Task: inverse folding
């Protein structure tokens, strides 16, 4: 996200960071080239304890109910928190409203392909032991065109891309320990409340190793990180031309011979 901010040829008087527990502020300390472009930095988190870890101005708040005045900030960054929202488009609309015209937004969130190996192993273990299946990992945003979601929320010039990261663990117990320390375990309201026995987790780890272990015995855990960026609309921004209004053929611009539909190329 800081690379995206560095690529923008302007400064930001006020920046709001949604989520991350101070991660962005600590990263900015290592990026003076980006920090000098930002005036007031306000970091936030849903958890008061996590917000307290921020080194500067901080606020505990719900990203789905932004207590931010419309058109009051120049930059909004969201660090791995929006995948927790119940209404992603609604949260994006609120962020757009909080931005001043021509304000910039960039985010990163976990995508739908995250932890597929763990989810498959949990389902198989629960089906084998209890004869039923329930959701035991919180859902992540689907790997859809995130730029399209930003456009639905009213952002101009939206872009998106994906990073896929594989982390290797000794076994599934170490992975689940990490997820708990990351605060990324299930918080589904409709999740099963029935206690499970240790046998369930042992079976999960066994299935995980049998199905996904690599040659050295370690297991992979894939994380999909969705990135997106967009601008709050402003009259100075470039607008797409009306279809059919081009004054030059693409073939002429490329210096090639135009080939009609159905005509054999070459």
Result:
């Amino acid at each position: 996200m800081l690379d995206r901010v560095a690529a923008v040829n302007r400064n930001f008087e006020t920046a709001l960071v949604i989520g991350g527990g101070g991660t962005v502020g600590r990263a900015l300390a290592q990026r003076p080239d980006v920090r000098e472009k930002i005036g007031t930095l306000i970091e936030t988190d849903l958890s008061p304890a996590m917000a307290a870890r921020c080194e500067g101005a901080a606020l505990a708040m719900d990203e789905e109910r932004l207590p931010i005045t419309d058109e009051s900030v120049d930059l909004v960054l969201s660090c791995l928190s929006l995948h927790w929202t119940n209404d992603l488009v609604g949260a994006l609309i609120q962020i757009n409203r909080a931005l001043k015209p021509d304000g910039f937004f960039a985010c990163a969130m976990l995508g739908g392909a995250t932890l597929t190996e763990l989810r498959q192993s949990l389902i198989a273990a629960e089906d084998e032991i209890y004869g039923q299946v329930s959701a035991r990992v919180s859902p992540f945003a689907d790997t859809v065109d995130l730029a399209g979601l930003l456009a639905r929320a009213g952002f101009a010039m939206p872009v998106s891309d994906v990073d896929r990261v594989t982390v290797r663990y000794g076994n599934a117990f170490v992975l689940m320990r990490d997820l708990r320390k990351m605060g990324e375990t299930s918080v589904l309201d409709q999740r099963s409340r029935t206690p499970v026995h240790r046998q369930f987790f042992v079976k999960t780890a066994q299935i995980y190793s049998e199905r996904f272990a690599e040659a050295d015995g370690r297991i992979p855990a894939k994380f999909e990180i969705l990135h997106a960026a967009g601008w709050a609309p402003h009259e100075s921004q470039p607008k797409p031309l009306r279809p059919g209004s081009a004054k030059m053929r693409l073939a002429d611009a490329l210096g090639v011979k135009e080939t009609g539909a159905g005509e054999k190329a070459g």
About this structure: The mean pLDDT is 88. The longest helix spans residues 116-130. Residues 233 and 244 are 24 Å apart (CA to CA). DSSP finds ten helices and seven strands in the chain.
